[in-house]
Fold this sequence. Notes:
Aldehyde_DH_dom
Amino acid sequence: EINQKEFLSNGEMKPWNGPFNEVFSPVCIKTPEGLKRKRIGSFPVCTEKESTEALDAAVAAYDNGRGQWPTMSVADRIACVENFTHKMIEQKEIVAKLIMWEIGKSYADSVKEFDRTVEYIYATIDALKDIDRQSSRFEIEQGIVAQVRRSPLGVVLCMGPFNYPLNETFTTLIPALIMGNTLLFKPPKHGTLLHYPLLEAFRSSFPKGVVNTIYGRGNTIVPGLMKSGKINVLTLIGSSKVANELKKLHPKVNRLRAILGLDAKNAAIITKDADLDLAVSETVLGSLSFNGQRCTAIKIVYVHRSLAQEFLKRLSAEVEKLKFGMPWEKGVNLTPLPELNKPEYLRDCIDDAAAHGAKVINKNGGQTLETFVYPAIVYPVNSNMKLYREEQFGPIVPVVPFDDLEEPIEYLIGSPHGQQVSIFSNNAAVISSLIDPLVNQVSRVNINCQCQRGPDVFPFTGRKDSAEGTLSVVDALRSFSIRSLVATKFTDSNKK
Ligand code: G3H
C-alpha cells in the first residue's frame, strides 16, 4: 500500500494532515462479505487553500516571464529534464506496478506505457534541440535581421486521464515544462498514486515552484484556479463537457490557450471488398485493447451488409480467444475496469440497444462479474440507440450494417466528434474516393489498420469536439510556446 502524506508545492514536499482519499484497485479480493475492491493506499484531499498556494508558487516561479526557468537557456532546461528522466527511470518498477494496480492495465502494458513515456521525453528533447538550432539562424529582410525563437506562455494547468495516467499526462506536462512554462499538475483520480514516486525527482530536478502538484476533488479545487485568471494554458485529456465548463470560468477566456484531447467516437468502415480477416483482427485490437478504454478506440463499426454475417461470425470467434484475467497474468487481454459505475453504464447501453431491436451476438457478451465486463458485440445498431451516439469507452463493439458508402460518411458528418476513422478495403479506387471526404471530417484516416495515436511523432489531434490544439512530439512543443522574433534594424551606428 502507498499512503501518500505529502505533496509538492513551491519546491517543497509539504506534509499533509488533512483528509485522505482512499484508493481501491479495480482488482477485487475475496472477503467474508464477498468480492471487494482491494485497498491500495490513499492520497491527500487538498482544499482550495493549498491549490491556491500551489498556483501562486507557479505564478511566482514564472514571474511574468522573468523567472529563472522561463529565462533559462534551452540547453540548461534540457539538462534539467534529462536529470529528471534519469531519476524517473530508477522508479520504473514501482510506477509500472502502480499503473497496474490503480487502473487494472496488464503489467506488460503498464511497462510499455512507462517505456513509451521515456521514449517520448527523449524524442521531445531531440525535437527541441532541432528547434533551438533553427533559432540560431537569422532571417534578413529589408535591412532587418530577425532571430526566430519559441517563448513560453506562462502558467499551465495540466490534467491527464485515467487510461494512460502516466503517458498521456506526460505528453502534455513535459513539452509544457521544457518550453519554459511553470506548472500546476493534477493527476487523474484513478492514477494518482503512481505519480507519487516521481515527486522527489520533480522537486530535485527543477527550480522552486516550477512543478507543483495538487490533489483532491477536481470540482472543489479546479474552478477556483480557473476563476483566478492566472492560468495561461489549460491542458486536459478528458471530456469536452468538463473542458468547456472550465474554460468558461476563466475571466479572460480569449487569452487562455487550451490544448485538449477530448471525446471521440471513431468508426471503422468495412467495405464489401475488404480483406475480412484483416478487418476482424484490426477491429478486435482497435475496439477492445485495454477493454476499449482508449480515446482512439474504434467505437462503432460500419460493415457492408453483404459481409455482415460472416464478419460477425469471425469477430465473435476472435473475441472468444481473448484472455480474461488479472493484470499481472501473462498474455492477458481483458482486465478489471477502474471506473466504479462503468459496468452499470455498459449494461444500460446494451439494454437500450435491445429495447430498440439489437442483440448481443457473442457468447457471454456483456456479462459482468464485479469489475469485469465481458466484451459484447451488438448488432444491428441504429440511430435510435445510445451506442450509436455515445462514446461507450468500454468493451462493447456496436456494429451497423450499410448498403451505400454514403451512410458511414453521413454518420461522420453528423457526428460531434472528429478524431479518426479506419477504412478496410482492397479496392484502390474505393479507398481514394473515401479519403478526401473523410479527411475533411476527422484528423486521421487509417487505411486497412486500426485507429491509434502512435507512432508518437505523428500529429495527434481531432476536429469538432474531439480536440483543441495538436499534440505529439514537435507539435506539442509548438502548442506550449509562441513564435517570437528578436528583430534588429541595421543602421550606421549598430552595423558593427
Ligand atoms: O486514449 C487515448 C490514447 O492517446 C490512445 O493511445 O492509440 O496508443 O492507445 P493509443
